[in-house]
């Protein structure tokens, strides 16, 4: 199996490794801000759906149910329409992520980032001014189109722009800004929850991160790979010189990019067909299973519904939002850990360690809920146990933050050959959104029916995915994108497909 830090074939690739210039850092930080809009949405929607004026205006029946005497804490928010509000975004995102495959290849990575930002901006404006459910849903669909585009393109952009040796670290920027978006949204919800029209502010302010990332994207250039692919050789050379440093020999990297682009052009086949060829089976499997598993860690359940969850197990609405902010900050810190570790100890190490940590915490959460609220769900949870629950969730969030969080964007963006790279990333985002949709649509019912057992469901999946990583995921750290084929050729299982 390809081990960590493996020397890649073709000694001429040495020049491709690692100088970090100011220009590449600025460019990638700007591109990373694309994560802001997705994070903001994740953070804002969970909080807004617990705001009474919002519920009164759009979902009054949820409030009526909550007012029943001694409601079952697991079931208060079990409303399919309320969940549809949150998850409608994912269906729209799924469609636009698939569309983005063609668009990023034809128009370049940077332009699609701008398109995503503008669409999201329009959705935010519509949501902030919503006077009925139709406007609310339409706004969410536009937000969905926006994040579909940006989530497809930003990780690919970062992987292509980063120096190969530090690709992992640069790529974690996407998840880092996503995390900032979550925390910012939670803080905003904390403030606006006290205002009667606060939900409008929360939803409308999504325009701010959209403006930041769109303006930023307008200032950066496209990736050298995308420029070469679109025949803009001179520009590609200029960008390479700028980001790798004017005194760096960029010829080996440029030659590799031209070679990859020629291979890509030699086949006239549709990328969505090429990707199903036997030789791309390992790549395809990863681009489907990595996001699938990421969602089955249960993170979104916690991220979307942290406030709902804390409230429904007995926290007040203020402290529920506070708990979500704490979780978000822990997550943010742990992504930074990933940034420093991912190119030193590798992707596999983080996946395995994070998996074990999340496994133990989920078991802990299930046990605490079992002994405190039991199966009736009508007992109020004591303060001590509530804090224990929060601590367990924080350790869980840290585990996710340095493993499945950032790495699920990194792996699909770095394993594909140029021709099908956008397609692979599109599939990956589409799977991510589809699974998020299904899980968020079913989670509250699951919580209502299976109570603490819901968490054991996710625990089992964490065990499965950790074993999968051990057996099937090759180490990709430090391997230049255009030499990635070696990791499959050396893998004891996958080599039968690629040779
Ligand atoms: C996931 C999201 C999740 C977020 C949490 C992302 O990587 O794709 O589904 O909500 O991390 O921080």
* Number of discrete helical segments: 24
Bound compounds, each kind once, are: beta-D-glucopyranose
- The CATH class is identified as Mainly Alpha
Strand content: under 5%
Fourth CATH level, the homologous superfamily:
MFS general substrate transporter like domains
Oligomeric assembly: single chain
Layout of helices and strands, plus pairs?
Elements lengths: L21 H11 L2 H14 L3 H7 L1 H8 L12 H28 L1 H20 L4 H29 L5 H26 L5 H7 L2 H13 L4 H6 L3 H12 L6 H16 L4 H4 L6 H16 L2 H14 L4 H25 L5 H26 L10 H20 L1 H11 L6 H30 L2 H20 L12 H5 L5 H4 L1
Helix pairs in contact: 1-7, 1-8, 2-7, 2-8, 2-16, 3-4, 5-6, 5-7, 5-21, 6-7, 6-9, 6-10, 7-8, 7-20, 7-21, 8-9, 8-17, 8-20, 15-20, 15-21, 16-17, 17-19, 18-19, 18-22, 19-20, 20-21
Bound molecules: beta-D-glucopyranose.
